[in-house]
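Protein data:
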Amino acid sequence: MKKKYIFLIISLTLILVVGLYFVEMNLREWRSDYRRSHYYYEVEIKGLSGRGATGTTEILVPIPATNDGEFVITPSQKEPSILKNLLQEYILHTPESRRRGPYFENTTEALDNNSINGNWTTFIAETEEGYMLGFKTNDSILKDILFRKNVVVEYIDIFDPINKNGPILYPAVNISNTSLIAYGDQVKYEANPTYESYVYMSNNVEVGIIHFEITLEGYNDPMEWPKRYRGSYLNYLVMDTSDRGKIEARVVLNQDF
């Protein structure tokens, strides 16, 4: 009798421990996008509202990509193990739709073919310099643009994103030669790197000053890094221009951790 009682206690304890483990893993798997490696991208273009245009208006801006022009890899949706699937179905009663891991949009899915306020449609353009994000409309009276996206990625190196395949505002040329200095077990930039990119505005837009403000913030996974090494970096492009066609722009990268 005593042995059966001990065996029952051990069995229940084991079930409880395993159950709590899978609950913790499930919570981790379904945590907020902001608790993962991700980037936040925002494009704001002012000075368009009320301005006239003939035909199709197209505007191109730098897109989140690595220094080589590649889109950053997005985590794939994970299939549950047999044990986890059984536990979720019969013990945790997890809905079938949540037994697989979460699905994350990649850069193309997140940025391409969005209809936004002002009757603009986004598209990914392939130019001589590489991919860029485009906005187009056939309206004869334009409206300002505001576009925001948060995209989860597999990994982001916030310490040396330019050389370690972190997303920056691409195209990126003439990157400043900024030294790396020690930061604990990692490194960081000694000064804020700068580089050149460009925007494009079709020539059919009425003359006047247009304000561009484009930001791209990259965050590492706070679940994977000690507090000291958690943080972000910011790429920002701010300019006012009355030019049309291809317009050069300066980008600054600032680290925060």
